[in-house]
Write a structure and sequence with these properties.
The structure holds 2 protein chains of 2 kinds.
Chain A (H helix, E strand, L loop, with lengths): L20 H13 L45 E6 L2 E2 L12 E5 L5 H10 L11 H8 L4 E5 L9 E9 L3 E3 L2 E6 L4 E12 L3 E11 L4 E8 L5 E11 L4 E9 L3 E10 L5 E10 L4 E10 L5 E10 L4 E10 L7 E10 L5 E10 L5 E9 L3 H8 L5 H18 L4 H18 L4
Parallel strand pairs in A: 1-5, 4-7, 5-8, 6-9, 7-9, 8-10, 9-11, 10-12, 11-13, 12-14, 13-15, 14-16, 15-17, 16-18, 17-19, 18-20
Antiparallel strand pairs in A: 1-2, 3-4
Chain B lengths: L1 E10 L2 E11 L4 E5 L6 H9 L5 E9 L2 E2 L5 H6 L2 E4 L6 E5 H15 L7 H14 L5 H4 L1 E2 L5 H15 L3 E5 L7 H14 L5 E5 L3 H6 L4 E6 L2 E6 L2 H9 L14
Parallel strand pairs in B: 3-10, 3-11, 6-9, 9-10
Antiparallel strand pairs in B: 1-2, 1-4, 4-5, 7-8, 11-12
Helix pairs in contact in B: 4-6, 6-7
Classes of the chains: A alpha/beta, B alpha/beta.
Bound molecules: adenosine-5'-triphosphate (ATP) and magnesium ion.
The site of magnesium ion has 5 residues of chain B, from helix 1.
């Protein structure tokens, strides 16, 4: 038997000692648990379509320095926190001191708060399904802690710009923890971008803990470059009557992986997950989502769309687990896929585990191509074939893009998507 | 303007058009009638450039140029317009966006400036009024959830916006109530001009009361078996197709 490949020990040495002691201790403990972390292979069920894209070289274990260009030039209609290579850059960040709302970098937490955070960090995730969240736990150098007291409302979206500065090979480990108190409200935008062109790994973890009645909207834009392998995980814990809404827009790359795990732990919680992925060339993107209906009377609604062109490869795996006590659960999952070329590949898999008897659970997945009749209709009006293709491809995801609640993000996403498709159909 | 000589076309290896000859001059209105399945829509689609149909023989010229060499979008830009028998629903593309993209593609081809959103909105509202379609339809997806009659009015709206040289109307009258028929006919009549030609496929003489054709042709079994003036339509209505030696539902002739 061939031995299983292990994560190189080069990856077990965190850098950056600016974290408060309780977090340093936590990181150390997690690093020692990583000593024999197997790397995913074709045989690893939740990585079987994607393991071949994972290419970790030892020089990528080095922590990227927290310096270089900042995302300063980005004007955002809201509050802004900028991270470079996983470390917060206060000079580039702009957010006010608001009543009942704490926005602090991990490094700036006092010992008590750091201790409290250390107890919670990682608690929203099932690490067996999101193995690389462990690596982040052993390597994060900084992070953003957001805490809303009960009833607090963040009046504008908070943008977290995660820029990876890849002037040399290495890796970055962005981390966010959001604690949303009872009936608090927050819209968070995570933008992942990159500069430079050395081979790098970006390994993220974002966690949301929603108390009773909390209302959180999360928008995640993945727009990193062709030199970035991105493995991210988002964990969401929802208490009674809380509401979580997620909008993920992802552009392909050499390796793109996002695990999104939601646990509905309190009755009446609601979650809505939207996702759009586009890939071209030889790009890859893998979304693994998982919704656990633990408590009764919860609703989940999930809609993901993938568009794959050229020789690219998109993967969607949607797991819904309805626990025994989760009666009157309502779960709806829908995944539609558009293949723009014969050489492209899309793998989609629903995974339903239902242990309660009084539930509504609907799921559907389709894979199709551009409709020739529609193309003909458009070109018969004088519209060029390429433009017709762009219009129809945009139409396939338009419904989801239109639901992105922050106008500026919606427009950014729209513009980037339409550029992407213009490029996709260049030769056609 | 349009000259069709001995046109043969097949779909999936089956020959549908079996030698069509037709001359249409600028300013003329031609009506094509004929039994179901005789090839009327096929002829329309072939002229518009649908490559699901293969032209196996014959030639078609538009103002002397070989039409069959042109891509569908080039034909449209040269002035061919087809009002579809079954207009296509395209959710996710708004009618407004579709219409503006089409109009601007046409303007660009003619070397004119493209219209901005506000200019186009104004024009689109006027034209939608002309076909009695609420401007709210501009915001909806292309034909998405439109009733049969609304789809047909949307087709005429496109013809009015694009101002084609040759408008081919494939059963634009079917499924219309009396008022809508009037609206659509008025739209088509507004298109009539010295330098434009209209080819309309219909099953009903009643349309021809509103839009009086110069010529009527009977297409059966993939060939034009009879041509005449508008009185031919009246005769057909009275006697059916049997009189011409074909059964009403004959598709194989
Ligand atoms: N894509 C296709 N595949 C197979 N057969 C086709 C296709 N399109 C048309 N046909 C066949 O070609 C023949 C002519 O069809 P066409 O639609 O041109 O008739 P039509 O004269 O327009 O009839 P109608 O009055 O019912 O609209 C029919 O027998 C039809 O079934
Ligand atoms: Mg027909």
């Amino acid at each position: 038997m061939k031995s299983v490949p292990m994560l190189s020990s080069a990856f077990l040495h965190p850098a950056g000692e600016t974290l408060p002691e309780p977090l340093l201790a936590l990181r150390k403990e997690r690093a020692s648990a990583l000593v024999d972390m197997p790397l995913p292979t074709r045989k690893t069920e939740n990585w079987k379509y994607s393991s071949k894209y994972l290419k970790l070289a030892d020089d990528m274990a080095i922590s990227l320095p927290a310096e270089g260009k900042t995302g300063n030039s980005l004007a955002v209609p809201g509050y802004k926190v900028v991270f470079i290579n996983g470390v917060m850059i206060p000079e580039a960040s702009e957010y006010p001191d608001l009543d009942g709302i704490q926005i602090t970098s991990f490094s700036d937490l006092d010992s008590d708060k750091a201790k409290a955070l250390a107890a919670k960090l990682g608690s929203t995730l099932n690490h067996d399904q999101a193995q690389f969240a462990r690596l982040n736990g052993a390597r994060f150098e900084d992070g953003l802690f957001i805490r809303l007291k009960p009833g607090a409302v963040l009046d504008q979206p908070l943008f977290i710009i995660h820029e990876t500065n890849a002037d040399a090979s290495g890796s970055a480990y962005p981390r966010i923890f959001v604690e949303s108190g009872a009936n608090s409200q927050l819209t968070l935008v995570e933008e992942y971008i990159s500069s430079g062109d050395a081979q790098v790994l970006v390994n993220t973890v974002t966690e949301f803990s929603l108390a009773d009645g909390a209302n959180v909207t999360s928008i995640r834009l993945n727009m990193e470059g062709e030199n970035v392998q991105h493995i991210g995980a988002t964990g969401v814990l929802q208490q009674r009557s809380s509401r979580f809404e997620s909008h993920c827009v992802g552009f392909g790359g050499p390796l793109r992986r996002h695990d999104l795990q939601v646990r509905l732990e309190g009755e009446g919680a609601e979650t809505k997950l939207n996702g759009v992925v586009v890939t071209q060339g030889k790009q890859h993107y893998d979304n693994h989502t998982s919704i656990d209906h633990v408590a009764a009377h919860c609703n989940s609604e999930e809609t993901y769309r993938n568009i794959a062109a050229d020789q690219s490869h998109a993967v969607f795996n949607g797991r819904i687990h309805i626990h025994q006590d989760a009666q009157k659960s309502n779960a709806d999952m829908n995944n539609k896929n558009l293949l723009l070329s014969n050489g492209a590949e899309i793998d989609t898999k629903p995974e339903l585990e239902i242990y309660a008897d009084d539930v509504k659970c609907a799921h559907g997945a389709t894979i199709g191509q551009l409709d020739e009749t529609s193309v003909f209709y458009l070109v018969s009006r004088g519209i060029g074939r390429r433009q017709a293709n762009v219009l129809l491809t945009m139409a396939f995801i338009n419904e989801l893009v239109q639901q992105i609640p922050v106008e500026a993000v919606r427009e950014t996403a729209q513009a980037r998507l339409s550029d992407f498709f213009e490029q996709t159909f260049q030769e056609a | 303007m349009l000259s069709i000589k001995n046109l043969h076309a097949s779909v999936e290896g089956k020959e549908i058009l079996k030698g069509i000859n037709l001359e249409i001059k600028a300013g003329e209105v031609h009506a094509i009638m004929g039994p179901n399945g005789s090839g009327k829509s096929t002829l329309s689609q072939v002229l518009a450039g649908n490559d699901a149909f293969e032209v196996t023989e014959g030639e078609v010229t538009l103002n002397g140029d070989n039409l069959l060499d042109l891509e569908t979008e080039e034909r449209a830009r040269e002035g061919i317009f087809l009002a579809f028998q079954y207009p296509v629903e395209i959710p996710g593309v708004s009618n407004l966006q579709f219409l503006r993209t089409a109009v601007n593609a046409m303007r660009k081809h003619k070397g004119e400036d493209e219209m901005n959103a506000a200019e186009f909105m104004k024009l689109a509202k006027e034209v939608s009024k002309q076909v009695d379609l609420d401007p709210a339809f501009l915001k909806r997806g292309v034909n998405e959830g439109f009733s049969g009659g609304e789809k047909k009015r949307n087709e005429i709206m496109q013809a009015l916006l694009l101002q084609p040289k040759l408008a081919i109307l494939d059963e634009t009258d079917s499924g219309l109530d009396i008022d809508a028929l009037k609206v659509v006919s008025d739209g088509v009549n507004a298109l009539r001009s010295e330098d434009r030609a209209i080819l309309m496929v219909t099953h009903y003489q009643r349309l021809l009361n509103h839009i009086v054709p110069d010529y009527v042709h009977v297409l059966a079994g993939g060939k034009i078996i009879k041509s005449g003036g508008r009185e031919l339509a009246l005769e057909l209505e009275e006697k059916g197709y049997g009189w011409l030696g074909i059964k009403d539902d004959d598709t194989s002739n």
